[in-house]
Amino acid sequence: MATAELRTGTYEALIKKYPALTLVTLIGHAGLAYEQGRFWDSYWEELALEADDEFEHVLRHCLNDLLRKFRLREFPEIAASNYIRVMAMHAGIPVYCLGDLVEVIEEHVQHGRDTTGAAVLEWLTEPGMSYRLNRLDVPVRNFLQLAGEIAVDILDRIIEFLLFTVEHSDVWNDLALDTSTTGLPTLLLEGLIERLRERPFGQAAVAAPKVARRRKPAVSYSVEDDQVMVGVPYPTESPESPWKVSIAGTTREIYAERGWGVDDGAEHPHTPIAVTAPAREVLMVHDASGENFRIPVVDSADPLLLFTENGRLIQRHTALPRGLVLAVYPKDGTVADAVSGEPIELEEEARTPSGWKGWHAQFLDLAGHNSILFRRAGRPDGAIRGVRSVGSPRFEPGEPVPGLRTPNGLPVYAERPEIVLPPHIGSEPETWRVRARRAGDRSWLADTEWDSDTEEAYLDPFAGVPAGLLGSYEIWVSGAMGSDQRHSMFLAEGIEVDHGVEFRRPTASGLEESVTEIACSAPLSVDRECVAFTSDERDSHVRVSAGGHGYKLVVTPPHFEARVDVLGAPAQWRTSVQVLAPADLEAHAVVAARIPGDVRVSFALTDEDGVTVQEEMPDVPASNVFQLSTRTFVDTARRIGACRLVALVDDHTGTHSITIAHIRPARLCESAHLDGGDLVFTGLADEDDLAAWVWAATAPWRPVKRLDIRGDRASLPDTLHDAGELIVQVFVDDPWITITRPSAPDRDALRVAQPGWMRDESPALDALARFLAGQLHVPLMREAVSGAWSALAVLPWDATDAESERIRGGLIRILCRHPRAALEALGSSTIPLDEKMALLIRTQLVNLPYSASETLNELHPDPWVGCMVEISDLPSLNARRAQVAGERAETLAYLENQGGSTLMELLRSGRMRDPRSGVFDRSVLAVDAMPAEQVEELFEHFRLVPGPLLDLDTRTSATVDAFHRRSAWSQDPACAELAGHVSRALRQVKAVAPVLYDFIQARNEALHGVDVVEHPWMLLSMQSLTLAAVARLDARGEFEYSPMTADMRTAWARMAEYFPAMVATDLLIADAVASYLAHDDLIGEPA
Known about the structure:
Elements: H1 2-8, H2 11-17, H3 19-33, H4 39-47, H5 53-69, H6 76-79, H7 83-91, H8 98-110, H9 117-124, H10 130-133, H11 138-146, H12 149-167, H13 179-182, H14 186-198, H15 207-210, E1 219-222, E2 227-232, E3 243-247, E4 250-254, E5 271-274, E6 281-286, E7 291-296, E8 305-307, E9 324-330, E10 333-337, E11 359-365, E12 371-376, E13 385-386, E14 394-396, E15 404-405, E16 412-413, E17 418-421, E18 431-438, E19 446-451, E20 457-459, E21 470-478, E22 485-492, E23 496-498, E24 506-507, E25 510-511, E26 514-519, E27 525-526, E28 530-533, E29 540-546, E30 549-555, E31 561-566, E32 578-580, E33 589-594, E34 600-606, E35 612-616, E36 619-622, E37 625-629, H16 634-640, E38 643-651, E39 654-663, E40 671-675, E41 678-682, E42 690-696, E43 705-708, E44 713-715, E45 726-732, E46 750-752, H17 763-772, H18 785-793, H19 802-817, H20 819-828, H21 833-842, H22 863-879, H23 885-899, H24 901-909, H25 932-943, H26 952-964, H27 966-970, H28 973-992, H29 994-1005, H30 1020-1035, H31 1046-1058, H32 1060-1079
Parallel strand pairs: 16-22, 32-39
Antiparallel strand pairs: 1-2, 2-5, 3-4, 3-6, 6-7, 8-9, 9-11, 10-12, 12-13, 14-17, 15-30, 17-20, 18-19, 18-21, 21-22, 23-26, 24-25, 26-28, 27-29, 29-30, 31-33, 33-37, 34-35, 34-38, 36-37, 38-39, 40-41, 41-44, 42-43, 42-45, 45-46
Helix pairs in contact: 3-5, 3-7, 7-11, 9-12, 18-19, 20-22, 21-31, 21-32, 22-23, 22-32, 23-24, 24-32, 25-26, 26-32, 28-29, 28-30, 28-31, 29-30, 30-32, 31-32
């Protein structure tokens, strides 16, 4: 046909006459025969035409006109570099590229990750992990990154089909498979079938879908507490051991709580913890079980977190609901319509997520928008986030049953949900496929096609299924590509629960008694229709059964809860009364109460006789949550002395005064001593639920023990008998929640003398405990390294005390014997972030090399430690690059993600774009006289969003921290001492490393015209880099005699106590340059 047409007309005329046919041939061929460099050769072969350069030129230049004619995206992101990739984008996933994608999905399933397209896409495109995506061909990469919801739907349908072939391995190839049964385009489906005939979906992946999958930790938002949260899973092994959770450089131990009523082997609910500062990621490591998780939080390039109304995180590649979303973002940015550029209308005043200074949390209404993006002045726009189209279905689940949940924390619904189909636009109805099945099954209970109407249509996704649904169900709605939706819920159809009270009030023995009545319709049955709760019971359980299925459900009647927490600290809701000192009210803290039902609430201080002295009305940040600043009551509490902080609650039965906290100046206990196997306490406060935290002084690495106090005694466990000195701290416990374990004793802790040491199964730790108890032998084994850090962290740096000096010397010997292990253990420890740099310097580890013969290790959860370790591995990885290509790629991706482009530039060339950026220069003097608040506001833009370690924002933030502490540093003797030390060291650095000297000299030149005698703190940037250069050059043996003297080290450690972020930044810069000077470029490809 083309040949005949061309005899009488031009190429342009042919294309104009057959535009759709022309475009289909181009896109279809891109999908069938994509192969770099051969598109046009095979195109002419398929059309049985001679290659024609002029015709090819015309086709190439008409592509955008054809796309516009049929309202298809032109993809300017890739069009400029390769127009064939634009055609491949519209073809979807070229058949030629399917093999690698199936292998990636296979690996994803084998690792137990969620079997959804969104989960695959999130993992592949995780910031800083580009090497994962690079395993795929360019057209697949482009499609997954740019096709939005269509890419998610395609992946969903591919995964569903692959898992179907695993479940039905004997018969799938005999079934009638087409687009109507699989939802996959014909070309893609045929390519998959061909691939699976050659190589079935891996047998190693077969078991994964059949095993009940555990929920992975996920970020969420608590609207009640205005906190960004993440869930800590219950460990599969050794649940009595803590997780180490790292957030924004701080590591703490978290004990996952066992779910109430959870049977052995069943899944427990996650333990929610607060993300108390903007963080790029949350890392969880459970050493005892080997489990670890990395949960991305803030993407530095696009710092916008979006949540549903109830606080569930909306994944980056998931279409946004056309309605309310909760946006969390830095306040110097704007959420805007991606088309018009206009800011999205705000639904209410902004709130601040707890601990996220300079960030906003706001509800946005997306009903009138098709796409949004995040915009910050001076930064590239964030990714465009698509909003579900007006023609998308809605999932309406109704309200969950109050006070009823599954043991793993899921809400229970008593009614079937509704699917609301949108009216169709135009004359032809749209067909929607609605399917429902029991979670974990591959067979559908209901599978129905519905045509849309001219008005909204409400339908039952379980149409045709008899009443009495019980269990967890999945509901899928499929329509045109890009409109698929998946939902899950737990149903107990027809169940009714009546708790009989508005809420249970606290009493001296717990909560007031109540009775809950439960009724259900056949075929459901319940083993107890009436559940009585005594005062010491908060939860109970019932068993609901139907059709051969039975489930334990947890019943929790509504009850009063309160908290008093410092702003930024995790919210700790409790039912028991807290004990506070008057000074505690002066902190930036809130008192809050969570009270179900129709109530009015005020907070008050009452005296010891119960007379109200001050009453205040609280804010209501969320439904039935009331809160107020504790500072409101400071003056009154000081005036009247001992008093109570109460909630005055009005409901239909009257006014109730509920005590939240006792305000009293005295501490909870005066002294403690041992009597046989008991701890005996003297002067205990008259409070309910007293308990004690107990540490073993000879084994500070051991988890703190919690002991109940009965009367004035607490029984010691056998492990603490003859275990050396004990440290005891009394606190008020809560019978139904796990009080956060303190990382260290507070100032009121008591010391109780006892002979012996803490025994340990590990010979190294047992020997270390004996050494701490007074024995002379120092265990220099690697296994003692973590314990040595724990002991060193609590040991006072007092050179006048002979015993502490003896212990300190031995601990440092252990650490320096194993420098790499010591560095990694320091990064994994719960030692406060601000103390780590000083410890690294005082122990002399900062001057040692961190290389190791074995480089295949888990990438470290602490970014700074990880970068130092991975830099030390680069020589070995480079020498073995052919044998360890995967490990090397992972290391380079980690360094770029955690260190940033500046670190990579230093490793590649030993240079950085501007060595004077982000440091003290003469312009800083202009803000010297400003108040701290004004300075913070001036530099806030650099400090809002966490970024890689050597990004300009991160370096500037470290310098701002130093600026705020300049006065205290100037008055410290170390400030004057360092000037002489640095002057002498500079000459030696210049002699062995002129490149590093040039970096230091550039910082010195930035101070031209500054009177450093009047302003000695202005030398900090130059001094810090000089000291870092000495340490890291010394670690590589560059000096014949080390310039680092004991006095210099002491003064530098003092600097690190003031300015840990600056010291850490300069150490990383110095180490990267020193690596380049010693080995040249270790991260590039050979010429």
